[in-house]
Design brief:
heterodimer, A: 434 residues, seven-stranded mixed β-sheet, two-stranded antiparallel ribbon, 12 helices, globular, B: mainly alpha, 24 helices, 47% helix
Chain lengths: 434, 543
Amino acid sequence: MKTPRITSRRAFLGGSIAAGSALSLFPWLRAAAAPASPRLLLFFTPHGTVWDQWRPVGGEADFALSPILEPLAAHRDRMVIVDGVQLDVGTEYYIPHTYTMPLLWTGSPIDTSTAEFCREDHGQCFGWNTGVSVDQFIASQLAGPPTPYGSIELGLGCGGLHPATRMIYTAPAMPRSPLDSPELAFSTLFGGINPDQLQAEKDARRRASVLDRVVADFGERRATLSAADKLRLDAHSDSIRELELTLTAVCEAPAAPAGVDSQTAIDRQSDLMAAALGCGLSRVASMQVRIADNDNTLYPWLGLTEGGHHTMSHDSSAGSQATLAGLYRWYAERFAYLLDRLAATPDADGRSVLDNTLVIWGSELGRAWDHDISNVPFVFAGATDVLRGGRYLSGSPIVHGRVLVSACHAMGLVDVEQYGSLDTGVGPLPGLFL
Amino acid sequence: MPSRRAPPLVIASLVCSCYSGASGTGEGDATTGAAATGGEGTGADTAADTTGEPVDCTSTQSPGAPVPMRRLTALQVQRTVAEILGVSTPLEVDDEKLFTFKSNVSSAVDFAGARGYLDFAEATVLATDRSTCAEPTEACTAWLFDDIGRRLFRRPLTPGERLGYGELFAAGSAEEGGGPEGARWVLEAMLQSPSFLYMDEVARPDGYLDDHSMAARLALTLWGANPDAVLLDRAAAGELSTPEQVQAEAARLLADPRSTGGLTDFVDQWLRLERLNDPDARPDLEALGAETLVAMRAEPVQLLSLMLAQQGDITTLFTSSETATSPLLAPLYGADIVEAGTTTMLDPTHRAGLLTLPGVMAALSHAEGTSPTLRGFNVLANVLCTPPPPPPPGVSVTLPEIGPDATTRERLEAHFSDPSCASCHAPMDGMGFTFESLDWLGRHRDEEHGKPIDDASTFPLDGVDVTVKGPVELAAALADSGTAPTCIARQWTSYAAGTPDKEATACLIEQLAADAREPDGLRAMLLGLVASDWYRMAPEVAP
């Protein structure tokens, strides 16, 4: 359950840096001087997997990687493969894909007591999430010097605002959208600062005054607002204050993404994610590849040339399942590339960013053709101080809350025993940690 | 009774066929959520959706649409700013798609959204001519506050805003750059202000929206952009208070070329045309070139505008073989263009109305292949408001292998042998088969894999089996159906109100559908809605 604020097990060196003009303008720089902090990175790909091509063969330590997971071989020793996590949709009716997307990282059901969204073909209306995603809960609980970004969300092809397209939530009905292309991510994370110091300070003064006025305008509204609309405006106002903190965050910018297309965009986002975490912009992050309902992307370079991913995922014939397995292997290659980049990025403690980052890969389904969620594939990687790597954990149905509680423990929130309103178990995943 | 309807006898004699609760969108009540716990809806006979329980309609009165505070869509923001400041800038902020139409009513602007608005504001203002403020004169203040500010905020600035923005102008002017820098600070703030980004709707004591709120609704619905100065003057003069005044003003907006904006938002979202610009799903379309794609996507709204100009009724939307096509589409039409002048006459044996336009047919196709399923589904969902239920859980969509030379139709018909597929797919694909003479780019074709196209098909329409051959006969059958005009009136009502239509609008919608069948009926339908209580009244705000 939601626990009170928990003291971090780490100490921070807040305030020990001499105050200069740059620091008074960019107070977040203090954070970069702190020792390397544990980080969390959630990774999503849509529509589950093809189990007989995903499941490793063998025991907990002496297993052979499967065709889909084989691209991760180089990271085997700092990786835990988890087979057996069950999602519980928590509602009477189940709209596949859609209802499990806001559930995946919140452990709480979609809201069926409101009805903003309607699916005529299902004869159902529903609202947003009811819970907070675990990354946002953790971000809200972290002690120590603040980072410029509370969290960083990158994505590719995540579409408009809808419960089926969003997995990160700061509160009920408060989705957090990813920066949906490498170009946008680069300009947001690294492009807002003028390299000319004098001009940067002028920009900072202008933006501070402008945004103060914008926030003041929230008090000038004439309409009588409902409680829900007041919350929406308050959240917007908070977002502007959050934006202000990021606008003075200076990082050594990585190379601007070049040659971006459907085939390379995920890797380019991984480049930017590694640079952002290495620079200390945030300790909590996520990457979302496409959407839960429904990803109909074509992958011509993998032989998926008609219908689209979701359409093909409903075809249980051997030929289509083989093509899908090829796609999920390609996802594993992208995940491996992300881990490569994190491993190649130095951290403040002289090790790599990956050594200090728990990366969790999940999906909204276990198996797409029949919308099965009784077993959803998860892979954990990184966080070498805590993760007991080189393991293949399989078990009878593991309650999904174990995954989310594990994220809390890896981030120092070791008093959290349950996460999300649907959690029926206790503690982190057995065998996951050292 | 405030209904504007002149002949009460007609209303009294009208009996509505109100759609059933199981059909979905219509019944979602934002405050009670009654629909969410209903039956599954799967396995429901689609005919039941169209019959429902009849309701006696004695008036079109209703409460105000229960729509929460709306944040403008990205396109509404961009159109408005392009008109007011003369600058077009990309805006990377997501919209909500609650049902068929985009309406930002349920979530908040998060970090990415706030950053998107900041980037938009800074880039726009940097490109804006601010020379009126070269000297901090009254002309500068009038331009910033009484012209730009009023049009952005859709109302005069409050005294508090004039003071606050005046201080911001002074602070900016004190920096290097002087007055134009002050104007930059002010405009950047206005473009990010909630007073610009959200509709700020105020109810009069009698429950109707006040005149400025009414002006904003009208312009955002019909132009997809903020009111102009004329409309704001009418609001300030109290000339948007009666249904007659509102309707007269709406007629002016509809006759203005800027109505392309609002009608585009309606048609584009209604017909799912965004698929034309989704290279991940349709990589084959990029080869047509960006300009051709723009022309394909614009043609449906151009057809609607043409039918409005010709005082058409709703059936002309389905039957017209005259269109307002771009010359860029001539290669796609090929021999189907019979006569090209100010408008284009198409071969009436191949083309009829909205549904056979290349943009619509291409949007409802796969890459280099037609999709009778997608086409049938979209006619059922968008034109008849009777979407079939989703496939039952656990069904595999594997199509039997019947050889490489099989036509699209033969491949689909092969799986009708499975009764669990056939129950939905036979009527849905059956309707889609009638479009088989139009390929994935909307080009006419006579054969596929060397076999002649078979576009004759039998399927249920309005609960009765009909047999038609080809898209022109299908369009005629839809034009004659009792369901299509009602469905289109529902779509317009949902778009304009920003929330799915509800049971309370059943009689209003039947009236709009009846009006739509009369001469000049398309205009009557569009204007009838904006004069209604559903549109003109404020929602009751929850305590």
